């Protein structure tokens, strides 16, 4: 049974969803209460474009994981993944109110997960609720900055020790992956949709500043072009 599970996960990781799905179905016949298998098969269905099947599996996974009474770090991470996947599936199926409810559950389970706040921001944007969209995106930004913040213990002139912020290292940390520039671009896009061109321009420029070296991310530059077009109208 373990070999079949590993084989299915291997197919999933290699984007061979048509091969992974039958194996996961076989595994569920032996243990229909395994929320992790429902989650993985749901993700396979979603990436395979089978949204109806994806929702059914992810909903079942969320129901099962919610019944777990013992909380630990591994289970909490699993819950984050399930809430995020189900929220995005609802989002892609244009069920935005359900997406909001699900993603909010995720942020309540782990307020520090920037991806949940980011997806919630996109859902609110689809709903035309730009105020809540910005609030969620800015929360995602705060979570990324909090994680990137770097401090070090230094000896002061009087011989005492103090924890001192290291802004340059924090800056480098924020430029080390695309997540920060991505969220800044999303903030810019929401300001643009809301008609606040000055704030949109500021966010897009900041997003460009934090694009990692060698990472091709044209979105904020396109956003700036749209800002200039709207300025000329």
Keywords summarizing the entry:
4% strand, 12 helices, two-stranded antiparallel sheet, 2 domains, 233 residues, Serine Threonine Protein Phosphatase 5, Tetratricopeptide repeat, mainly alpha
In total, the number of domains comes to 2
Structural class: mainly alpha
User: In what range is the share of β-strand residues?
Assistant: under 5%
Measured between the Cα atoms of the first and last residue, the distance is 64 Å
Order of helices and strands: HHHHHHHHEEHHHH
Percentage of residues in helical conformation:
over 70%
Number of strands: 2
Q: What's the CATH topology name of the largest domain?
A: Serine Threonine Protein Phosphatase 5, Tetratricopeptide repeat
How would a textbook summarize the main sheet? 2 strands, antiparallel
The general outline is globular
Instruction: Pick out the low-confidence regions.
Output: none
**CATH first level of the largest domain: which class?**
Mainly Alpha
CA radius of gyration: 21 Å
CATH-defined architecture of the largest domain: Alpha Horseshoe
- Total of DSSP H or I helical runs spanning 4+ residues: 12
* Overall pLDDT level: 92
- The strands making up the biggest β-sheet line up spatially as 1-2
